[in-house]
Structure formats: C-alpha cells, structure tokens
Amino acid sequence: MIKELLQDLMSTAFGAWTPNGGCDDDEITAAENRLGISLPDALRDYYAAAGRHPELMGRGGHEHTFRLSAPEHLSIEDGHLVFCGENQWPPQWSVRADDVGWPDPRVHGRAEPGEKWYSEARRLSAFLINVAGRQAVRALPYQATCRLREDQLEAVEPLLGYLGSRAMHRGGHWLGFIDRSSRIVAHYSLTTSTLRIGAVAPHALESLRERSGLPLRDA
User: Fold this and answer.
1) Alpha carbon of 180 to those of 10, 13, 22, 158: distances in Å?
2) Which of 44, 57, 83, 147 shows a CA-CA span of 20 to 30 A to 33?
3) Each residue of 76-95: pLDDT tens digit?
4) Cα separation values, 115 from 86, 107, 189, Å
5) 3 state DSSP class of 142
C-alpha cells in the first residue's frame, strides 16, 4: 500500500533504503498476537519500511515531530489503537479498535490522554505518509519556510511532485511533496498555511527559491 512510497522517501532524504530501516514480520506479528488484533495494512507497511528508522519514528531529537510507537509499545486505550503521539507534547493519534481490520481506516486524534477523540484524517495511509514527510523535512540539514495560501500551491506543483498523489490526501490537514532528482522534501499545513522545505544540499534549496519565486526564508 505505502511501503514503496516510504522507501522512495527514505532514499531521497537519507540515501538508499535498506531492510535494516524496517521491522521484520516476526516483530509485527508478535504485536498483533499480544493485542489480539490484526494491524491495518497501512500501519504494517510503515513498520516494514521505517519501523527502525530513528528519524521517521520520531527519535531523532527534533522539535515538533511525531513519535510513533514501536510495535512492542502499541496499546489500546479507550477503544482505540494508539500508534502515534507528538514529541514532547500530549496529543495522540489512533485507529478505532473496531476498525483495525480495515486496510486503510480513518485516523482519530485527541489533545491529550483522557479527552474525547475526534476525526483527524480520512485515510491512515495518507496520515502516515504525511507524518513521514514531515519527519524527513525536519531531519534534513537545509530548510526554508514561507506562508502560502492553498490556492498559491500552483507555484509549487510544477516543481515538486506530490508524495503519493493529491487525491490520497483528501480529508487530512497536510500535503507532502518530493523532488527525487534534487533530493528535496516539502510539507504543507492546510491548517497554518505554512510550507516547509528540506533539502540535502544548499544549492537545491536556492535553485527552488529562484525557480518558484516563493518568499522562502531560512528555517
């Protein structure tokens, strides 16, 4: 479902993907047996591609990133499989325990443990792809950001391809972009109208600034 997209993202941001970046089937199956459920295909794909990668799992020490639970630390709370939290902050994200048998269920979130769950994203696959993209951007050595209305994304679309497709992100709060040849990853928040771009090399970021005409400032 999303394993190849994640591998592509990891290769672009961090170099060639290797199996060492992901969990093996035994680790994932052990978590399912412990919880008495089958994990959604999208979450299994994330673990298989990136379950041991410190940056994409949120263990790189960067602020404002997500921390995904390793398979052995997954838990069910208040009828939800909690798989993700915000690094250094209390928000949580989950899938309803009744929905885990679906390959790509809806994601729910809450501001802190004990509060009411709300609908966060229509598809788990899109949520996880955007989490991975955001993690990658924060980990890259050269970054820039700007405020941008959604209708101004037309300046970005010819230069950066969508991470996945625009259609798969419907019903969520973020959009992810990637340029494999220039090794650039970008993340757009529909909530804050903020575009953040990360690059492996400084000249790639400067080239994008010149070609796009966007008012990018160093982050």
Assistant:
1) 10, 9, 21, 14
2) 57
3) 999 999 999 988 789 999 99
4) 15, 16, 24
5) strand
